Amino acid sequence: MDNFNGIEPPMDTVGNIRVNNARIMCNNVFVHYSDKRAIDNLSLDIEAQKVTAFIGPSGCGKSTFLRCLNRMNDTIATCSVTGEILLDNQDIYAPEIDVVPLRARIGMVFQKANPFPKSIFDNVAYGPKIHGLAESKSHLENQVEEALRRAGLWEEVKDRLDQPGTGLSGGQQQRLCIARTIAVSPEIILMDEPCSALDPIATAKIEELIEELSEKYTIVIVTHSMQQAARVSHRTAYFHLGRLIEVGATKELFTSPHHKLTENYITGRFG
Amino acid sequence: MDVRTLIFLVGVIGLSFYFLGRYRIVTQSAQAVQRPHSLLHYYGLYPFFLAIIPSCFIIAIMQVADGFVLSILIEQYLPADIRGGDEFNKTITLSRIENIASGVIFGSPEDWLIAAANKWLIWSERAQLTTTILAISSSILLGSYAYMKVNPGFRSRNAVEQIILVMMMFCSGVAILTTIGIIFSVIFESLRFFALVSPMEFLMGLTWNPQFEGAERAGSGQEGLATYGSVPLFAGTFLISAIALTVAVPVGLMAAIYLSEYASPRIRATVKPLMEILAGIPTVVYGFFAALTVAPLVRGAGESIGLTVASESALAAGLVMGIMIIPFVSSLSDDVINAVPQSLRDAALGLGSTRSEMTKQVVLPAALPGIVASVLLAVSRAVGETMIVVMAAGLAANLSANPLDAVTTVTAQIVTILVGDQEFESAKTLSAFALALTLIVITLVLNLIALQIVKKYREQYD
Ligand SMILES: Nc1ncnc2c1ncn2[C@@H]1O[C@H](COP(=O)(O)OP(=O)(O)O)[C@@H](O)[C@H]1O
Ligand SMILES: [Mg+2]
Predict the structure, then answer these.
(1) B183-B189-B193 Cα angle (round to 5)
(2) Which end of chain A has fewer CB within 10 Å, C or N?
(3) Is residue B199 part of a domain?
(4) If residue A240 lies in a helix (H) or strand (E), which one and from where to where?
């Protein structure tokens, strides 16, 4: 049905790709791994201070697109990105942009919790240290506590900050990673299936946390769980084979999808 | 029948059993209309293994045992003075007898020697006959036994698996036993050395001078002249190793970091094997490079700034040894740095670290235990290195911390002690074993530490 090798088809995403209050604007984004097209002519706005969810069958390019938003794709030699991705009207792929501060502004939480093999304290303190955010030791301690509190982990770890972060449970590790990201004071947080390795209780905690964080941060979350998207997000985008098929308010997209592919996916007839 | 023909014959018998076994299973399963339990060739392999393995064992054991048994048997034919005399003479006489028996005759041997040689000949023929009969009959008997067992219900695949398992256990046993054997022989000889020289003198003494050694240390009239203080040797070893590590660790580590964090896959694929070639160059080549190129350079450089440099200096040897062990550090460190999961790098980069911050603060700490292990391996290599030292650092057992002096190392001394004529019983010869033992203990401890660190390292992430 979709032939990537043909001439660029006109991209007609169902639903309104634009929002009034956009933090990130993507226009005609293409991503290739060597010659293989992974994102095909995608345009989408990410709304400020809201949770946007990316859903779709695996391999459809959700992670690839998410990693474009903080230029993590730069680390993959074969990956090339074209098109515009504007953060506050500034193209983040412009040559004068330095990725290091960019990634401090746009934090990322990964699919598999990846705490450093350091103490819990050092994990959270890592970002403030490399960016020189703390003026003194006590200031740093405050920042670490603040980040851990926001991530809902403080009560569980406050007595063992000097123990390795890798010794925590899976859910705690993921919250530690969120705390580590928050500690850099990002404006946007990208999350790539943050709960895919967690049990339902740990998942519920993280979802709760996402809801709280959305008051302060702009959040983009990739998830393979439609229930999760329905629970935490305000806006949902459905990807299929590298294309953005449909985007809309979460409630609307799940109750009355307009595109056949979206409908098939959310009613479980696909993937 | 000589051994080669015998082995060939056993092989032929084994092969015949292979085909017989296969043939039998084919016909049997055709008659019984039953699918054999295992693939067909397993029914050939089982009789094949049973036919050849025990026979080969018999041949090997007889080969080893017959010289030993024969020398005991022949002893009664030796004149009383030799029989009662010292071991050394006896060994020589026995080997003369053996030579005469195999037709190598020097001069005109005494009658009793010829008589003994004749006896030897007869007995060794008998031994060979016995070997032949035992080997062939065991081959045929066990082969037939296995052949009889072949039928479609027989689980020959599992049986063959068992045989292979036993063979592998045997092989690993050989490796371990050899190591233990070497260590015990070194320990045993060292004990003999420590009967002549006190361990205190050996371990604490500051002068190494075995040159005045007479036949026997005590009572030779020269006692007290030879001294066996090993401190200068170990000091020399550590001085040279330290110089080598000063070269190898920074260079190797930097190279490893470059290769694993910065280089493109293509550069890495070419540079890494090139560096590993350094490890493949024979050390004697490094040795003359050190002696003929680096040592004069060091000397010239030293003298141009007014330092006196021995023509053979610890510095020259250490520098070259350092170059030699660079690949040990770089290759292994590169591996451990690469083993640091990508997810940790992603985490660091995702927080807005630069590449070098990521390397310094996340990758290297995570890889540190592995890097330490690679350095320890390089240390073992440096401590054990001989050729470069013999050629470039000299043989003077000076106790000096000055890298411009000539020093010597433990391994270089072992070589000089054991090269050329020597008496087995003398303290000088035996001291080589004591040195070797101490060196083995030191490298063993280093390896244990490395192992311990690697173990801890495995627990670090995941
Ligand atoms: N590093 C890579 N190199 C080459 N191809 C990749 C790479 N990462 C992802 N892809 C390909 O890009 C497509 C989209 O992958 P991804 O973004 O991971 O999908 P999703 O996250 O939706 O499951 C897939 O076909 C995948 O095989
Ligand atoms: Mg993905």
Answers:
(1) 135
(2) N
(3) no
(4) strand A235-240
Q: Is residue B222 part of a domain?
A: no
Helix (H) or strand (E) holding A103: helix A99-105
Query: ipTM of this predicted complex?
Result: 0.90
CA angle B145, B148, B152 (to 5 degrees): 135
Q: Give residue-wise pLDDT tens across range A168-206.
A: 999 999 999 999 999 999 999 999 999 988 889 889 989
Query: Is A218 a residue whose pLDDT tops 90?
Result: yes
Pick the atom of ligand 1 nearest to A58's CA.
23
Give the per-residue pLDDT at B460.
58
Q: Is the CB of A80 under 6 A from ligand 1?
A: no
Task: Note whether B45 and B144 are same-domain residues.
Answer: yes
Residues B253 and B340 in one domain: yes
My answer on whether B23 and B91 are in the same domain is yes
We report the CATH number of the domain holding residue B438 as 1.10.3720.10
Would you state the pLDDT for residue B449? 83
Considering the domain boundaries, does residue B211 fall inside one?
no
Among B7-16, B358-367, B414-423, B435-444, the least confident range? B414-423
pLDDT at residue B215, as a whole number: 42
Supply the range of the domain harboring residue B94. 3-186
Of B343, B354, B361, which has the smallest distance from its Cβ to A114's Cβ? B343
Global pTM? 0.74
Q: Quick check: B365 and A181 CB within 8 A?
A: no
**Residues forming a β-bridge with B46:** none
Is the pLDDT score of A127 beyond 90? yes
B240 with B181, same domain: the answer is: no
Among candidates A77, A117, A180 on the partner chain, residue whose Cβ is nearest the Cβ of B461: A117
Report whether B314 contacts B389 (CB < 8 A).
Answer: no
Go through A33-68 and write b for each residue having 16 or more CB atoms within 10 A of its CB, e for each that does not.
Answer: eeeebbbbbbbbbbbbebbbbbbbeeebbbbbbbbb
Q: What angle do CA A12, A18, A24 make, to 5 degrees?
A: 115
Distance (Å) from the alpha carbon of A13 to chain B's nearest alpha carbon? 30
Q: What is the DSSP letter of B262?
A: I
Q: Give the number of domains in chain B.
A: 2
SS3 B155: coil
The 10 Å CB-count burial string (b at 16+, else e) for A104-115 is bbbbbbbbbbbb
B264 vs A contacts (CB less than 8 Å): 77
Chain A: closest CA distance from residue B209 (Å): 52
Q: Are A216 and A35 in contact (CB under 8 A)?
A: no
Q: Which residues of B touch A115 (CB under 8 A)?
A: 347
- In this structure, the answer to whether residues B273 and B351 fall within a common structural domain is yes
Nearest to A184 among B345, B346, B352 (CB): B352
Residue B343 falls inside a structural domain: yes
Give the mean model confidence (pLDDT) for residues B73-98. 77
